[in-house]
Structures are given as C-alpha cells and as structure tokens.
Design a protein that fits this description.
By secondary structure, this protein is α+β, with helices and mostly antiparallel strands. It is 41% helix and 19% strand. It has helices spanning 11-18, 55-59, 101-116, 118-133, 139-142, 148-166, and strands at residues 5-9, 34-41, 44-51, 67-69, 77-79, 84-85, 91-93. Strand 4 (67-69) and strand 5 (77-79) form a beta hairpin.
Length: 167
C-alpha cells in the first residue's frame, strides 16, 4: 500500500473538472483538503475530499456506502462519492503549510486515524468503485456521485495540456 497523506489540489484543476461535473466539490481556495492516495484505479490516483467534524456525522450509519467515517464521525468523514482522479503535479502536501495549531491538530488526528485504519478505508473505497463500475449503486447515491469515467478522461486531457508546463 502506498503512503497515505493529506493534500491540497490546485484550484485550477478542480475548476477545470467542475466544467464537466458539478458534483466535484469546490476546492474553497485550499481550505478543503483532499486526502490521498486513497486508491489507484484504472491507473489513476483517486483523492477524496475530507469534511470537518459535524454533529450530523455521528448519526451517519457505518454501513453508508458513500461515506467513510473518521473515528466514528468524531473527526469528520471522507466523501467517497466525490473522489476525483488527480495528476501528481496538482497535489501539495497540507500539514507542512498549516499555521493554525487547532486545525493542524485536527488534520494530524485525522491522518493518524486513517493511517492506522487504511486497510478498512481502502477496502471501502474498492467496494464503492466496484459498485459504481458495475452500475450497482442505489439511484440516490449514483445521482450524487461524480462521473468517474468522464473525470478520468478529463484528467488525461488536463495532463496532456499541462505536460509541457510541468516538465
């Protein structure tokens, strides 16, 4: 398994993807970190957005297909339905750049939990991808899930367009 870490994704890339799929979360100017490497699928690195802890996360069932609860929701969730394939050059490590001590502690606690439980996380991501690819997701979840196939195509397109710039 690859090293698990927290990343910011370039606003430009996220905005590019949003032109094709409105379910891609806004990057909120690097305020919403994406977690990665969550999963490699079809040779793409998928990253999923974290959500900071909220009381409603405690009420989400552990069996929810599209959410991974971090420490039973006490440390937030990962939205599996909003994973996006992302080129390496669009990623920037989060923790070294965070100045706010309270926020940095939350991120470190989230990351510690995820590293310790990465097999469970990866298993859930793999199950979600499998259900998506086989078109077995319930309709209500499918409607709020990013179009992974389209986003993979757009990821390749973005890489090609930016290859010269980033080499």
């Amino acid at each position: 398994m690859k090293k698990l870490d927290l990343y910011y994704i370039d606003d430009q890339y996220v905005n590019f993807l949003r032109n094709f799929d409105s379910r891609v979360f806004f990057n909120k100017n690097n305020k919403r970190p994406y977690i990665g490497v969550v999963y490699e699928y079809n040779s793409f690195k998928y990253f999923a957005p974290l959500a900071s802890p909220k009381p409603k996360h405690l009420k989400i069932k552990d069996s929810a297909l599209d959410v991974y609860k971090i420490k039973n929701g006490n440390l937030g969730i990962i939205n599996l339905n909003n994973m996006i394939p992302t080129p390496d050059f669009c990623l920037h490590l989060v923790i070294p750049t965070v100045k706010d001590h309270k926020y940095k502690k939350l991120l470190c606690d989230q990351l510690d939990f995820l590293v310790k439980n990465r097999k469970k996380l990866y298993d859930k991501v793999e199950m979600f991808q499998d259900l998506y690819q086989r078109n077995y997701l319930p309709k209500n979840i499918r409607l709020r899930t990013c179009d992974f196939k389209l986003l993979e195509e757009k990821c390749l397109e973005y890489e090609q367009e930016n290859l010269v710039v980033n080499n």
